[in-house]
Amino acid sequence: MKIILTNEVSGLGAAGDVVEVKDGYARNYLVPRGFAIRWTKGGEKDVEQIRRARKIREIATIEQANEVKSQLEGLRVGLKVRAGEQGRLFGSVTPADIAEAIKASGGPDVDKRRIEVGSPIKSLGAHQVTVRLYADVTATVDVDVAAG
């Protein structure tokens, strides 16, 4: 099945790309979650609009990515969450929470879809997350999760 990606999907492509995938993968996973739309002849207009929006928010050059990487790696991000007595969180810390905390700490604006949390953050303390900035450029950000 031919689809148009509306978000970046790792291993498949970036927003605005037209890709061919198995029918079940598109029908059961990509389309219902909003990662893609079905390709149609009229959908070519949508492709250009998606690509323009992606170009506005994406990091254009590797130099720009390295600059953002140095800003992120020199940053200490603090995050206040609700927690129980043993230090277990009520829920977990999401990439959207981390993106907000980076911005509140004086860091650059980071897209939540570029933040990779290895295992779910469900406890207080120091944690590390990875931010994919460019094809070969990733930054490691220290996140301090505290009860608040």
UniProtKB/TrEMBL annotation:
Keywords associated with the record: Ribonucleoprotein, Ribosomal protein, RNA-binding, rRNA-binding
InterPro entries xref list: Ribosomal_bL9, Ribosomal_bL9/RNase_H1_N, Ribosomal_bL9_bac/chp, Ribosomal_bL9_C, Ribosomal_bL9_C_sf, Ribosomal_bL9_N, Ribosomal_bL9_N_sf
The Ribosomal protein L9 domain, residue ranges: 13-40
Gene Ontology cellular-component annotations: ribosome
UniProt xrefs under Pfam families: Ribosomal_L9_C, Ribosomal_L9_N
Domain of life: Bacteria
Secretion signal, residue range per the UniProt entry: none
HAMAP family, per the entry: Ribosomal_bL9 (MF_00503)
Role played: Binds to the 23S rRNA.
Family stated for the protein in its record: Belongs to the bacterial ribosomal protein bL9 family.
Name listed for the protein in its UniProt record: Large ribosomal subunit protein bL9
Gene: rplI
